[in-house]
Amino acid sequence: MLYDHTLDKRLLRRAFEQAAASYEQSAVLQREICDRMLSRLEYIKYMPDTILDAGSGPGYGTRLLAARYPAAAMMAIDIAQSMHLQARASGTDMLPGWRRWLPFVHRRSTGYICADIEQLPLHEASIGMIWSNLAIQWCNDLKQTFSEAHRVLKAGGLLMFSTFGPDTLKELRQAFKPVDRFSHVNRFTDMHDIGDLLVHCGFSLPVMDMEYITLTYDDVRGVMRDLKAIGAQNVTHGRRRGLTGKGVWQQVIDRYEALRQDGKLPATYEVVYGHAWKPEPRTVSLKPETRRKLGLV
Fold it and tell me: How far are the Cα atoms of 215, 219, 248, 285 from residue 265, in angstroms, in the given order?
């Protein structure tokens, strides 16, 4: 059965606006993956002058990047304005009390933009590094997203990201599958297809890898509660438009309960990491006679 997995961006924005206040407390997995991404930068000897955090949320990754690259100009883009408000508050709260009243002292400010990362409101070749932690799975057109990233990156610039692969929330998908004809879990792109898209969009030297992370819960409602708290709700066009009936919901719970292991319910995440470079423009050396024929000398 085919489902419509196209994301309704209006509902997506609303979900993240509503989740902004609870996101930081609930996004344990997101912070862990961000930390793991950051550790990978140890092996990449590159010092960007401008960094874009694409899908920045309440600013956890933005703050870590600003600390790692204090000389770089920071920009943060998110689809939800409330996420930026949380990021600003969190950034201020981390400062000593007296410095909160002196924003111009020893601080490099972050530029905040409310926008969709599928359409970046930035000039061409203006960014040294694009960092995106668990955001591109919320894009309808990944080719367009990577093309935009390639456009705004400077030559020699780095794109680094994480996203979810097809096995993400496979238990929840399995529990819902025979129950009705609606989509309940987002569709996620395979790691190899992402690598192919990077090359197609003009990136060079793509590096892709993947790992599984499994969270455990006491009950199914705990899984759904955590997803709601970080804004990860079902906003596909193929979703059920009304409330799920008690009978249907009980069937889902029963099927999920059959997966219980060691007293806990698993929620699997296939985490995909990737990075690639925007290549420097090619230079061609012409022979002296060719240069004369072309009138270049």
Answer: 8, 6, 19, 63
